[in-house]
Amino acid sequence: MDPDETTTQDYVTQVTVNYTGSYENVTSIPDNHSNSSYSEQLLLDFNAEIFHRRLPNTILISVMMILGVIGNFVVLYVYFTRLNRKNVERYFVPFLAVVDFAACVIGPTFSLLENVYAVIFPSNLLCKTMWYTTSLSSGLSISVLSIIAINRYLKLCRPHGRQLTVYHKRMFMAAMFTIVTLILIPMVFFVELQYIDLVYKNEHVLGITCAPHNPRQTLGETIYFGCMFGVISIIIIITAGLYTAVGKVVFERLRKTRKGSVPSSIQPSPRFVRNNKVGNDRKDSVASVLSATNNVLQESKSQLDIRKKSSVNGVLNEDSSILDTRKESAMNGQALQLPRSTNGAYRQYRMNFYIMFLTIFVCNTISFVPSMIYLFLHEHDLYFFFRHDDAVLNIHLTMQRLYVTNHVLNPFIYGYFDITFRKHVIDTFRRVPPSPTTVRQVSSGT
């Protein structure tokens, strides 16, 4: 494993670090340094000690990997076997789950490789591949969340404006995947194995690590990483702004709901309000709900046909889909299931999805920002993770890899906010097949 002398002199930096955490400035490897200092056994012993020091982080990453893989697999299994895939509220859930599943496999695997082969990383190709795929999975996750933010913002804050149709969503997803895939390609050329000169048992040891650091960093590399940080920061800020607007509307509607306002899913049309002068008095709320619902069900046949044609073209939104299903049920003589109270079951259903995606974004930001900061520190300091004592080292490693937490938490966030999804997960583990009644309720969005 001994690199040749010329290559070593090209890569060795001006800092030598020993395993206890102290470091001293040197200009080169001492001339009286014997070849035995670079022996494979000494390097292996040093690597084993580093692995032992990083063991708490290794255990934590392993547990997160197991939870993330199982959780996202359950999400995909339940979605494709038990849930109604035409439910537009869950349109982005499988895409996000696939990205999270990949991230929970790739990210922790790379972290474990860095812990196991801290100073003897085995392959330059493996180094480049892991950095690229890890960055790709995280980049796709952020991009999906930004598209979700745009979609939710238009639906909630601009309900009467232009909306994202299924076609638009597919095009956005395809464009996002292509752009992220291409923009990360230069990273393959900038990331490579790096030699680090360390001191172990009073002997100089030349280790090999995988890091986004190049002592001969070019201007192009500096510009690239700077632009990457800038683009990611802009995406996070814009997405945060959209979700802030969504959050204000969501919590305002929840506040009104607690006061007993009529659910938005069965609000009367403006013409009905003018003709019938529906009162806002809470004493008449039940009568208003029933009257508004009857008015909706009596919409003209031409309007119903327009909505059905729109659904064929993939431009049907959530409200029209739910109303059409309810109208068809009424026409077939089936009982219409009204909310049990004026709080509105369907409104609460939709609010849960808004809050769910808002929570996912908050968790993503909180977990991703520290990882970006540590990437910046590591990119400018190759020895950053070799100069701390055990406790501080594991804290730094955990913060650097905190981005994995977001991919692990998403399935549990689904289960908390999506009651129907949670019920199907429980039924799956109980091996209880979904009843026809449950399927009809899911398809109607209740």
In short:
The chain has 17 helices and 4 strands.
Structural write-up:
It is found in: Membrane. By secondary structure, this protein is mainly α. Helix content is 66%, strand content 6%. It folds into two domains: 5-255 and 352-443, Rhopdopsin 7-helix transmembrane proteins (Up-down Bundle); 263-331, no CATH class. The chain has 17 helices and four strands. It has a four-stranded mixed beta sheet. A hairpin with a 2-residue loop joins strand 3 and strand 4 (203-211). The longest helix is centred in the middle third of the chain and has 40 residues, at 219-258.
Helix content: 55-70%
CATH architecture of the largest domain: Up-down Bundle
Fraction of residues in β-strands: 5-15%
Q: Can you identify the CATH superfamily of the largest domain?
A: Rhodopsin 7-helix transmembrane proteins
Strand segment tally: 4
Provide the domain count: 2
Number of helices: 17
Q: Strands of the biggest beta sheet: in what spatial order? A: 2-1-3-4
User: Major sheet, described briefly?
Assistant: 4 strands, mixed
Termini, distance in Å? 63 Å
Shape assignment: globular
Which structural category fits the helices and strands? Answer: mainly alpha
Radius of gyration: 28 Å
Average pLDDT reading: 71
CATH class wording of the largest domain: Mainly Alpha
CATH T-level topology of the largest domain: Rhopdopsin 7-helix transmembrane proteins
The string of secondary-structure elements, in order, is: HEEHHHHHHEEHHHHHHHHHH
Low-pLDDT regions: 1-35, 261-269, 276-343, 439-446
